[in-house]
Predict the structure.
Amino acid sequence: MSRYDIAIVGTGPGGLEAAITAKLRNKDIILFGNKELSHKITKALDIRNYLGLPDTTGEGLAKAYNAHLDAMEIKINETRINAVYAMGDYFVLQSADEMFESKSVIISTGVVAGKSFPGEDENLGRGVSYCATCDAALYKGKEAIVIGYSKREEEEANFLAEKAEKVTYIALYKDVSKLAENVEVVVGVVPKEIIRDGDKMRLVTNKEEYLADGIFILRDAVSADKLVPGLLMRDGHIVVERDMSTNIKGVFACGDVTGKPYQYMKAAGEGNVAALSAVSYLTVNK
């Protein structure tokens, strides 16, 4: 398995700038995120405080970002990273069906909307999981609940259904595709709470309750403290030093995930600093 110099998670302004700066410093990088970039960018109607672009739109800014990435031959890997584990002198980034290794990591995932469900955090790893394909083998002949926030989660639900006896798929979006025969699709309900019920897990919604052996919560993004175990957080943001370093050696952060103000220019500047700091870290820790 090849080991990258810097793995960057997130394709907002911070992550993109970090990727560009690291590439200019001749580092072997991998950039994870959405090829459509951050929705916060693309949906912005009017941006007037971005240096050099006195009157632009989110769409215009995204177009400029993509042009810059293309010119630098930087590709976006749309694999969703579920966890980042420190392994001593390198890190393992886990996705649903693949592992990646990197000597350093830059987190630029933005602020994850919405809080955890009551009962979610305390049952994480004890019946609650964020990766259906990772744990599918544990549910052979069992029943599972999947909470899906977008169509991209349907593939994981179908994969889980190959092992599980039954999957209840709670879709929090419209236009659900036809899924496997043993997948019961439920729409129009809102999850409220997760309760351990003996050796089962109970999902309480605004309409009904559902019982299964485990619950998978497949959000578009995992909050930073769950993405990187042991990461120091404060008020929902990653705590960083001025060089964008975190409490975990070799892990840096930038953008909205580090706190207010939530500004494109601030995020890009932090991305530049994070990349330069990661480069310095790699130089010292060859």
